[in-house]
Design goal:
The protein has one domain: Alpha/Beta hydrolase fold, catalytic domain (Rossmann fold, 3-Layer(aba) Sandwich), CATH 3.40.50.1820. The protein is α/β, with parallel strands linked by helices. The strands form two sheets. Strands 1-3-2-6-7-8-9 form a seven-stranded mixed sheet, sandwiched between helices. 30% of the residues lie in helices and 22% in strands. The protein has six helices and nine strands.
Length: 225
Amino acid sequence: MSQKLLDCIEITTAEHCEYAVIWLHGLGASGHDFEPIVPELQLLQRPGVRFLFPHAPVRPISVNGGAAMRGWYDINSLDFGSRQQDSAGIKESASLISDLIDNEIERGIPASRITLAGFSQGGAIALYAGLTGKHKLGGILALSTYMPIQDDAIPLITDDRLSVPVFMAHGEADDVIQIRYAEQSRDALQAHSVNLEWHSYAIAHSVSADEVVDVSTWFKRQFGM
């Protein structure tokens, strides 16, 4: 490993796990944020799934007055349209996630059975790392988010990644990341022939019960349940 592995919360749905999900939280949260979703997904006991919920590094966040909090990269403006993207932070976090994927492969789960999931900032890293990283994954789940540093990222999406299933969903009343930014990301990825499934819900920057049902259905399809 090139660096120390991120600390993770680990939940398994069976004694023997054939699939893994690495789920990334949003800015200022922690791995505990999506821990409660596992039982809500109502997955079957077979095949078993190992869920990993890593804690993002603690870093200074500009919009938080420079105070440190858990984040996958810096945010320097609440105005999404005019903010400068933290390319270095995004790439650093993608490298940390790549190491987690390597570790899961060493534990016996191939990349083709690993799903990278995330919400908000975590979803941006999931899209970037999942589509441009060294591993061809089994799937990418991106909730209430967008594709970051597109000018750099989209040319890096190789033909073999175009078949990776991507589930992208957003709240129509999201006031943190307006849905138009997610739709722009969706359109840019689909124009590049990424295999993307899109959902929207009448919610803000959050996850709804209907969304959990749709995510569960997608996961079951991914895991052959």
